[in-house]
Write a structure and sequence with these properties.
This protein folds into four domains: 105 residues, Rhodanese-like domain (Oxidized Rhodanese, domain 1); 139 residues, Oxidized Rhodanese, domain 1, CATH 3.40.250; 100 residues, Oxidized Rhodanese, domain 1; 100 residues, Oxidized Rhodanese, domain 1, CATH 3.40.250. The model has no long low-confidence stretch (mean pLDDT 97). It has 533 residues and is of the alpha/beta class. Helix 6 crosses helix 10. The protein is built from 23 helices and 24 strands. It is globular. The two termini are 47 Å apart. The strands form six sheets. It has a five-stranded parallel β-sheet.
């Protein structure tokens, strides 16, 4: 049974820096509008799919919040209790109560990481160069290399002309072969600011001899300055040579000493895994290809750059232990150095053992299964059968994918809904007699089916096998747009480039928001970043 906690008590818990998961169970797009600084997003709609990773220990203290008086936190508490979580509290009054008690509300997503990036730039005076100057240097023939610190998918979508993809923690690992001449200027960019700043400062902290700068405002700044980005680029920084890897290890050792990075041996980590009183995250910070080729069983993939960029998407329990895995001992060290400065005091890099670094561990390979605990498959229908039922019975298709994915492509004639707001869909589609639920891969549809059956007692509720992915694979009829919406389109955060019509306005607003965070965090006494001089 969950209990209520006042805002003053929550503030004391945050200041104590003991284990606590503060989770906003509203949809991500609503979370974006305003929440306490340390509140991570765990949307009620996708709770079962995310809880196991965010909350690996069922006895960890969990505090839930919504906007206030919405009953979302209570519904989320019931779901978590059904999953076996035992220490659940609800913030009295939700976000409204927190603000009324003098608490600061922060708009945006990944706020702790974004604010930390601005803190880093101000504290270390990380050099940033405007797009116009980079363009001038390129035109002048200056020897330079542009390294894009985002994941490949983002880089592939749009990048600075000539840029090479080297995500986050890969920078120190791979830069030595990309810029072996100390006279080569290294320019680090991302979409906006955070990963440019952290990437640039990582290389500076590692002591590479090259001049390193961050491209001010990233690809957004580049386009706002009137320059075109490339689309579909595939230039990825190669794995380091033996000489490059040796230089990377030496650089990481320098960083480990300066930032007091701790290391943990296998025996120590195994003891922690057996400790039921503490939460432990075992995070592999290498590339996805390396992770899927060979990994420690039970570990999760959390590429170093993204772990720093979006810590709240990987780690839900503040004050938990974090062990970072990288047999090369470069990416783990770089990531640990940043997490430590963000306030994660119990973060360690795993000491590699044996030839591949994994000696003594139980190992796994292949894609990591993503099956929510307790998932009970609902009766289903194939895509081919659905085509026939649409024609014969007027089947109503209700898609629970994100509004962004629905807008881009969806089953012809489908309606869009949010799982946590199925009652709103019921009001619009009360007459449905054959209701077919679908989602990105069908998993969310299976989770939502019992709830839909309760809301549509006179209807036959079934799930589409394989979800939208199966439909698209067969190249069956699709629509675009979001005219058939049953609720407001605030389920997810729309990035600036998701706003095709007024991209420039949203890009400028986003960049201004990031810059303003450095002042806003000074008004919240629970925020404690650490800097090393």
């Amino acid at each position: 049974m969950s209990r209520a906690i006042a805002s003053a008590a929550l503030r004391e818990l945050l200041l104590a820096n003991t284990e606590l998961a503060l989770l906003d169970v509203r949809e991500q797009g609503v979370h974006y509008q305003g929440h306490p600084f340390f509140a991570a997003s765990l949307p009620l709609s996708r709770l079962e799919m995310m809880a196991g990773d965010l909350l690996p220990r069922c006895s960890a203290p969990v505090m839930l919040l919504d906007g206030g008086g919405e009953d979302l936190a209570e519904r989320a508490a019931a779901k978590l209790e059904a999953l076996g979580y035992t220490d659940i509290a609800i913030l009295e009054g939700g976000c409204a109560g927190w603000a009324a008690a003098g608490g600061e509300l922060f708009s945006g997503v990944n706020v702790p990481s974004k604010a930390f990036g601005e803190f880093v730039e101000h504290h270390y005076d990380t050099p940033r160069v405007p797009p116009q100057e980079i363009r001038r240097l390129i035109d002048s023939g200056r020897k330079l290399v542009i390294l894009d610190s985002r994941p490949y998918e983002e880089y592939h979508r749009m990048n600075i002309p000539g840029g090479i993809d080297a995500p986050g923690a890969e920078l120190v690992y791979r830069v030595h072969d990309l810029a072996p001449d100390p006279d080569t200027l290294v320019v680090v960019n991302c979409a906006g600011r955070t990963r440019s700043i952290i990437g640039c400062q990582s290389l500076r902290n590692a002591g590479i001899p090259n001049e390193v700068v961050a491209l001010k405002d990233g690809t957004m700044g580049w386009e706002l300055a009137g320059y075109a980005c490339e689309r579909g680029s595939t230039a990825v920084a190669p794995a380091p040579t033996a000489a490059g890897a040796a230089r990377a290890r030496a650089a990481a050792e320098h960083v480990a000493r300066r930032f007091e990075v701790k290391f943990a041996a296998r025996s120590q980590v195994e003891d922690w895994l057996r400790d039921s009183s503490r939460t432990l995250y075992l995070l592999d910070v290498r590339t996805l290809q390396e992770f899927e080729q060979l990994r420690i069983a039970g570990s999760r993939h959390a590429p170093g750059g993204q772990l720093v960029q979006a810590t709240d998407e990987f780690v839900g329990v503040r004050g938990a232990r974090i062990v970072l895995i990288d047999p090369a001992r470069v990416r783990s060290v770089m990531t640990a150095s940043w997490l430590k400065q963000m306030g994660w005091s119990e973060v360690c890099a795993l000491e590699p053992e044996g030839g591949d670094g994994f000696a003594g561990w139980k190992l796994d390979s292949g894609a990591r299964a993503q099956i929510p605990p307790g998932l009970r498959p609902w009766r289903s229908i194939s895509a081919r059968e659905l085509v026939q039922r649409q024609q014969q019975d007027g089947a109503t298709v209700l898609d629970l994918a994100t509004s962004l994915r629905f807008r881009d492509r969806h089953i012809q004639g489908a309606w869009w809904a949010v799982r946590a707001r199925l009652a709103e869909a019921r009001a619009k589609l009360a007459g449905a007699r054959l209701l077919v639920l679908t989602s990105e891969d069908g998993v969310l549809a299976h989770l939502a089916a019992p709830e839909a059956a309760a809301l549509w007692p006179a209807a036959q509720v079934i799930v589409l096998e394989g979800g939208n992915a199966g439909w698209f694979m067969l190249k069956l009829p699709v629509d675009t747009g979001i005219e058939n919406a049953t609720t407001s389109q605030d389920d997810v955060w729309y990035k600036p480039y998701d706003h095709a019509r007024d991209y420039e306005k949203h890009a400028r607003a986003y960049l201004s928001w990031e810059v303003a965070l450095v002042d806003q965090i000074q008004r919240d006494p629970t925020i404690r970043f650490r800097a090393f001089d």
